[in-house]
């Protein structure tokens, strides 16, 4: 299956570019969208929860959250531990989520055009399996 990574990375880059263009009218990028998406789907969360989910450093998520606060899409509220902050969507953040989600769904539909339902399902099921294999490989390196 030589060339798989090259094809995947080309696809990934064009999708990210399309997503960034789509969300630019909201002053969002895909990396900021990831935080909004996580909070909307998993509820109010800590920086650690979000950084663990996306496998990125906490300072990276902190910068994203600060930018989303500036845009008034999220707020931080005190957690159980006073050092812990819970991030949640504002009313504006909820509205922006709905608008972007609709546009992203349309983009997803367009990029899957020409694929049969079976091919779409296989693709949808295959990508998480590949990610899981990568994560297992990384875990075995750290042991």
Automatic annotation (TrEMBL):
- Provide a GO biological process annotation: response to stress
Keywords associated with the record: DNA-binding, Transcription, Transcription regulation
Establish whether keyword Transcription regulation is in the entry: yes
Give the top-rank taxon of the lineage listed in the UniProt record for this protein.
Answer: Bacteria
Q: Which residues form the HTH marR-type domain?
A: 1-132
Q: Name one GO molecular function term.
A: DNA binding
Q: Which residues form a coiled coil?
A: none
Q: Which protein is depicted?
A: DNA-binding MarR family transcriptional regulator
């Amino acid at each position: 299956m030589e060339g798989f990574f090259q094809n995947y990375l080309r696809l990934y880059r064009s999708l990210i570019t399309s997503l960034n263009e789509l969300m630019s009218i909201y002053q969002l990028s895909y990396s900021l969208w990831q935080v909004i998406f996580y909070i909307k789907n998993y509820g109010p969360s800590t920086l650690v929860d979000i950084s663990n989910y996306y496998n990125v450093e906490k300072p990276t998520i902190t910068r994203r959250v600060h930018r989303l606060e500036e845009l008034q899409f999220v707020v931080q509220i005190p957690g159980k531990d006073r050092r812990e902050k819970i991030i949640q969507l504002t009313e504006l953040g909820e509205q922006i989520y709905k608008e972007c989600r609709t546009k992203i769904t349309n983009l997803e539909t367009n990029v899957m055009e020409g694929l049969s339902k079976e091919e779409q399902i296989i693709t949808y099921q295959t990508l998480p399996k590949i990610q899981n294999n990568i994560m297992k490989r990384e875990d075995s390196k750290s042991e």
